[in-house]
Specification:
With about 140 residues, this protein is α/β, with parallel strands linked by helices. It has 4 helices and 4 strands, in the order βαβαβαβα.
Amino acid sequence: MVASRVNRGNVVGLLCSFSGEKALLEAGIERRTVPQNFRFLRLRCAADLDPHMVLDLLFKGIPGVLVFGCPERAGYFRGCAELAARRVYLLQQVLEVAGLDPERVQYVPIQPTESRKLAQTVADYIQRQNIQPATEEGV
């Protein structure tokens, strides 16, 4: 599954193809620095978020998952942002009941042109959660 391809020291970004992925591409074009321990997976839409995949990532040692999707009422599909945010909220509730930090999963509304916000959000999250890149032994 997906977790087998990602190191334990990596934060995973699930990027909506209509907003998050375009913001990341824009960040590359603008040569913005994104932390080296950030990995991403493309979703057709953030509403396609599979809670089982997120839980699989977390239970296999991934320190955090950031879901980058469209802002409320601005999604490509009607109601997609609200559905994605709701799924992340429910995942946070499950983590809290399981005794895990609910901040390990976050929904980040983002426009395709907000490359600075994407890079800054990832850097701030990694710093706030005190996530260190995995060493060779921790892979």
